[in-house]
Amino acid sequence: MTLIDPVLLKARLGDLAGRFDVDALDVCDSTNSELMRRAEAGAPSGTVVVADRQRAGRGRRGRSWLSSPESSLTFSLLWRFAGHPASLSGLSLAVGVGLVRAMESLGAQGLCLKWPNDVLLRTGQDFAKLAGILIELSSDRRGMQTIIGIGLNLSPPVGDLPQPAAGVSQAGLGPIDRHDVLAAILTHLAGVLDRFSVRGFAGLKDEWQRLHAWQDQAVQLFGEGEVTKAGRCLGVDDDGALLLETEIGLERIFSGDVSLRPAGTTIGEGCP
Ligand code: BTN
What we know:
By secondary structure, the protein is an alpha+beta fold.
């Protein structure tokens, strides 16, 4: 598997090439951490760090994130926004929409989204995680800067995994060049992030709900391994909060520090 070549990538980005500045590394601690350091030193919006290996890749909720050059695409994108941090609510959901659009543009099928920001592959009644998103935010006199970290499985990860995981090779795609995948993702992210800058998440909410794995279905929320809430999932609101119809009425869930699953399942059972 070859390292991403920024020249080959530029050719695939066409008119959008000028909006991205891509650096490909053999190894780093975490592309999010590396890009955060570059952002603090003044790197422009559109800077991308892609790495074949991370020594300390980070996932959500303090988890680590494993990746390998043979089977994954691991990168972070710096995007600056004007305005107030509250205007960024729903950003991670918007990024999920961009990822699904990109993979579908390459021919992938069966993709769906799990709140707040996992991309899943549906196989029959079961679901497996295809990609994870970790967004980190900071603000300074130049405005708000977001580090959008994405880990995508190109082929199914091997080993003892805590949750079902899949690769895009199982989503109906043949052998695929990582340059094509990264170019498609950056292209679709540019579209989604431009729209988000103007209308916020509201402009992407309907599409997110069409892709939502458990829209209008009975679900459970887990925190610390236990069911904390149960009800019918009505989707999300304009801020990206989860809407749950429970026995006490309509509840809005803001914290992503919970795990959403279909009713009647336990953690890890047929679902990430
Ligand atoms: C999750 O827990 O689902 C989010 C995983 C995000 C992993 C990506 S890989 C590229 C970027 N660098 C990191 O250290 N994490 C993110």
